[in-house]
Amino acid sequence: MLGPGATSDDEHNDLSPRAYEQAVAERFRTFFPRPAFEVRHDIRLPGRASAVRRQVDIAIYEANGSVPILIVEVKRHKRAVDLVTSGATVALIRDIGAAPAVMVSTAGFSRAAKSQLLWEGIKHMTISPSEAKGLRWIPHIEQWFGLDRWFRETTGVLFEAMRVRNVSPFLDTDIPYEEWVATIQSGLDLFPKQTVALLRNLARSHVDDGVRFNAVQMLIDCDKLTQADAADLLAAEIDVEVQSLLLETLDHQD
To answer: Could you tell me which residues come within 8 angstroms of residue 26 by beta carbon, excluding any fewer than 6 positions away?
Structure first.
């Protein structure tokens, strides 16, 4: 049984510390979008007291700026950040003295750590491994189509859901048609088997007639709607337009 603030091994197994940092960077790219800002991952800044260059997980700059406006320190731990870990971040921020700071953790923060960070003026944020697994898809998705500033995170969640065959986000998320289609088409390129299974599920059980129609159409377009599938869907379908599309498909396959 997991203790307070702990996360399971399964949540961490396919998310390395570096991958988690990159995912967190995507969250801050939503908060601080291009071209007004630049979010840099894994950089070094000069320490004032130590007189050495200190590694910083994420630094955010205004466009063409040379001094960061925000520092982000990231901890992928299975348990809540404790006082020792928060203290190390406090020491780092004091040394570089560059900007306001935020500490991000997979599993939250102990009461003592929160108190220390608050006293030092350092904010804290929890981004779970499951959230990070969605965020990490954003750079890949952006290769296919441009993303609205806030929709980029929703798309990441949908991509991760496709990867693990979780239909729930597609049942609960209301997104514009063009972005829905682009997400599915990208999924067909990256996770063809999982995405086809998702489309079949949506065509069979989504409450929205338009979503069922679009799912059937995309199955037809990628040649993944068999005659047996079409007949099964038709037997349960109540919308006239979806029925017509399925009948047309069956006629063409005869």
So the answer is: 135, 136, 138, 139, 152, 153, 156
